[in-house]
Amino acid sequence: MSDTAAWKTIARGVLEIIEADDLRKKLSKGTPLNIKLGIDPTSPDVHLGFTVVMRKLRQFQDLGHRVILIVGDYTATVGDPSGKNKTRPILTHEDVLKNAETYKQQFFKIVDPAKTSVIYNGEWFSKLTFTEVTKLMSQITVAQMLEREDFQKRYRGGQPISLHEFLYPMMQAYDSVMIDADVELGGMDQKFNVLRGRELQRSLGKEPQVGLFMPILLGTDGKEKMSKSLGNYIGVNEAPQAMFHKIYALPDALVESYFQLLTDIPLESIQAKLAQVAAGTLNPNALKEELARDIVRQYHGADAAEMAAIQEKRIHAGEALPENIPVFAVPAGEHWLPELIVKAGMAKSNGEARRLIENGGVSFDDAKIGDPKAKAMVSGRHLLKCGKRNFARIEAE
RNA sequence: GGGUGGGUGCCCGAGUGGUUAAUGGGGGUGGACUGUAAAUCCACUGGCUAUGCCUACGGCGGUUCGAAACCGCCCCCACCCA
Q: How far: A342 CA to B46 C1' (Å)?
């Protein structure tokens, strides 16, 4: 293929392409390709983990291709078991539609809506007859289904697998047939499903899609994949300062993959800097700052990124407090401190608040509190601090 | 339908009649250290303004001075056989 720059863009960060040769052929046709992404709008809070795939979609668009976003309103009512060790809770159709709207609003922060078609798969699944479903399911055997790692693990580990979960991969495959997908994007956990699409297309005499698999972005804990339920995520809707801080405080080991998957900064430049860090000639924080700035810029603009960077430094130097400290109004007078801490949402119960105090993590107006029975006199404006980065303003009503 | 093994705190997992929110690990939170990261160390990790009271070991009943543990029924899960 002559267009090596385009190929380089497409291949950046990609874990696996099945088959790369097929993709080269498709690209060389010179006509816009159908790039498919299927989503289950289960959790409308889009975080950076999702953006890895979205950014890839955007790169395809910038090269002239068309994105088809399949909203799995029907598949969501089945619940994709991919990568899960449990049956997923089934959503109501109403929830799915509502979530889809929220999802799209965030999706289009990255993906170009002008080059995107949004299609609900209920469009065809609501019309399939039982006979057609039977025919679809006859395309696969139980043994093939159990090849999928997560099914296999659950089966061996004595975890339940509901039969309806077997429908999911075939439904996803059917989507690809219906829209004539050329490329389907997904994480490695989607490999099995995407390959079903490839095979189903082929068996129906269509040109099979190419599977393009992106790595799973690890979360801020550096261990598990980024996910809302694990609380290790960075949301695309987060405020600049919060976003900046989370990226800046990332474990070192994650920096390279974040650069690769979440920015367009040339890989050579990153590798050169990482080498300097390893050699001890560059402070790792400088690299994290560059990363944080770039990502915050993408979602909030250059000015906000600059402000966040300055603010972050001030906070750590102890010169400033974060912006947007939540304010809680209470009646003037004496208040038992644990009660204030709970009110400010820094602890779930009075008991937890007492323990925080006993552990020496609480200060009120810069005075450390050691006694869980302590009371605070509230008149005017006060600063309550729990731990290193949890601040709240307490104001007299 | 028959058989076997299970259901314990956020997760995993000890515990089989008798102080005690219930060993241990993971995770989480706070502190020390540090680069704001990692690693390490220490503390905390059901609720209640609390020398005590309440709630908790799948559910409901029962035995007992006393049960997560014993008995009965029920619900749920896995595996084997059909």
A: 16
**What does the pLDDT profile of chain A (397 residues) look like in tens digits?**
446 888 989 999 999 998 889 999 999 888 999 999 998 877 677 899 999 999 999 999 999 999 999 998 887 766 555 444 444 555 677 878 888 898 999 999 999 999 999 999 999 999 999 999 989 998 888 888 888 887 887 777 777 777 888 888 999 999 999 999 999 999 888 899 999 999 999 999 999 999 999 998 999 988 888 887 777 889 998 889 889 999 998 999 899 999 999 999 999 999 999 999 888 888 888 999 999 999 999 999 999 999 999 888 887 776 667 767 888 998 998 889 999 999 888 888 898 899 888 888 888 888 888 888 888 888 888 889 888 878 888 988 8
Q: What domains can be seen in chain A, in order of their start residue?
A: 3-214 (3.40.50.620), 240-316 (1.10.240.10), 327-396 (3.10.290.10)
Strand partners, A66: A34
* Both structure tokens of A18: 């099945």
What is the rounded end-to-end Cα distance, in angstroms, of chain A? Answer: 70
Is strand B in 7 Å reach of the CB of A393?
A: no
CB A55 within 8 A of CB A71: no
Q: Compute the distance between CA of residue A311 and CA of residue A33 in angstroms, rounded to an integer.
A: 44
Measured to protein CB atoms, the chain B nucleotides within 7 Å are 27-31, 35-38, 43-50, 77-79
Rounded to 10°, the helix A255-262/A48-62 angle is 40
Rounded Cα distance between A190 and A80, Å, is 10
Q: Which of residues 129-158 of A touch strand B (CB under 7 A)?
A: 155, 158
Q: What is the residue type of A257?
A: S
**Can you tell me the distance from the alpha carbon of A83 to that of A87, in angstroms, rounded to the nearest whole number?**
10
Q: A345 beta carbon < 7 A from strand B? A: no
Indicate the residue type of A243: M
In a 3-state reduction of DSSP, which class is residue A330? Answer: strand
**CB-to-strand B under 7 Å, chain A 80-119:** none
Distance separating alpha carbons of residues A344 and A395, to the nearest angstrom: 11
Q: Which two tokens stand for residue A320?
A: 């400033």
Rg of chain A on CA atoms, in Å:
25
